Every structure is written in structure tokens, then in C-alpha cells.
Amino acid sequence: MTKRNLGGRRRQQGERYPSGKIRPQETIPPEALKRRAELVGCSPEDAAKRPEAGYALGQLLMRGIIDQRQHDAGIAFGLVWTRWALMAGLPAHQPRQPTGRARTDPDLDEWEKVRDRYRAACDSVRRCRPSGLVWAAVEMVVADDIAHPILSGLTGPSGLRALQDGLDALADHYRIPRREVA
Length: 182
Hints:
Layout: H1 30-40, H2 44-49, H3 56-62, H4 68-88, H5 108-126, H6 131-143, H7 148-151, H8 156-173
């Protein structure tokens, strides 16, 4: 009997469901889960289940350093900052895979709208005192996605207070309502 060359794609190797579909591989390495769990003070299983453990604002929220209102304000500002940075043509703070697409120049009206939203949010943060420390703390956590200096106490109480003040200013800017504590 001769071996025939069968057409079609080769079958992917890996564990499968009873239906024959391939099971997804573990996406988060165990070392990363362990580190996240240490940062937020939970078990690696809880860190895997909670998406908040995977980014700086979420880690601060899980540790109780910031509240939900401050977290939501940071997320809102992060979206504005990212959109502004992309439209301005700034390099990404975090490395990304190249998409192969050329960046198109934004529409002038859209650019002005995004720029004005970004500037208004920045002005609300810069009105806090000391403005340099507040801006640095907000940028470190929101734009750079770095929380370990705050979690480990390297910034001291002034850095923590500056971050909370900046996020409160952003929450007021975005009109995020305060939640009643029961």
C-alpha cells in the first residue's frame, strides 16, 4: 500500500474537547499569576479569575488603595490619553506587535475634539497641588501601567495621596458620582 499525500491543513496538536475542537492554552504563565497574587494579596487562582489583577489601577483597587470611583476615572482618562497619543503619533508606552497598517492622518475636527478632551482632563489634574507630583503619579499608574512603587511604599504617603487626589480630580472632571458608604 502506498502512502498518499492528503490535501488540506494539518491538524493542530494539543488537548481537545469531546467535540474535537482544540482547548485553548493557558494564556497567563504561572509565574505571572504568582507575582500578581503577591501584589494584590490573594491566591493565584483568584488572581487568574479577576481581570483587575492584571493592570495597575485594578491592583490598587483590589488592595483598597483607591476606590471604585477613582478606578473608573483612571480608566476614562486612560482611554482619552491613549486616543490622544495615537492621534498625535506618539510611540506607545508599552511595546506592541506591529500591525502592518500605515497610520492615516486624523480628521482635523476629530483631532481638535480629542486634543481638547485631553487638555481639559490634564488641566483638572494639574490644578491639584503639588501639581508635578500629582501628574507624575497619575501618569505612572494610568499611562505607564506601573503600580509597584505605590504598592511597595516606595513613593511614601505623599505619592499615594497625590495619586488619590489626581484620580479624585479626574472623577470630578468626568462627573463620576460619589458612592454612598453604607
